[in-house]
Design brief:
This protein is mainly α. It is 70% helix and 0% strand. The protein has one domain: de novo design (two linked rop proteins). The chain is built from seven helices and no strands. The protein starts with 7 loop residues before the first helix and ends with a helix. 32% of the residues are buried.
């Protein structure tokens, strides 16, 4: 059994949950039981599945729950795009949430891809890829995010050198 609180990817996912809840609090009331609820369920699924996987006895179970979290991140990616296209999320909020999601997905993917010969323990998880992404200049993140949404990011990218 692993302590999920020791995983940086869980911490990133938890912070994403808090940011998404804040952003969806301003959605129209008629969306409360549809899009708002669906987005919140998708984002909560990320840290929840990471935590649940840590509570399982073997690496195979842990890996399976990480895959479920990755699937939820893809669902969230689309739902954020939909909310943006419906003008419920302003450009800046969409870009920020998408950037946080990209970062969490990269960390999650690094953990999923960890060689099977290395035990998947929380304390031993320090991939260099993550350190590289955390040190990347913010302008490179904007270019990554631009791939997600070419409609709104072009104007934002022009504001950031």
């Amino acid at each position: 059994m692993k302590d999920f609180r020791e995983l940086k990817v869980w911490e990133k996912a938890h912070l994403l949950v808090l940011a998404v809840y804040k952003a969806t609090s301003s959605f129209p009331r008629q969306e409360l039981y549809s899009l708002t609820n669906q987005i919140q369920r998708a984002v909560v699924s990320l840290p929840t599945n990471i935590a649940e996987g840590c509570g399982k006895s073997g690496d195979a179970d842990f890996s399976r729950y990480l895959q479920i979290a990755m699937g939820s991140s893809s669902e969230l990616e689309y739902l954020l795009l939909l909310a943006h296209d419906l003008t419920y999320l302003p450009d800046e909020t969409y870009i920020s949430l998408s950037g946080q999601l990209v970062e969490a997905r990269k960390m999650l993917n690094a953990l999923i891809q960890k060689p099977k010969s290395q035990p998947l323990t929380a304390k031993s998880y320090h991939p260099t890829a993550i350190n590289f992404y955390l040190l990347m200049p913010l302008t490179l993140w904007y270019k990554d995010i631009a791939l997600l949404c070419s409609r709104c990011c072009t104007s934002v990218l022009s504001q950031h050198p």
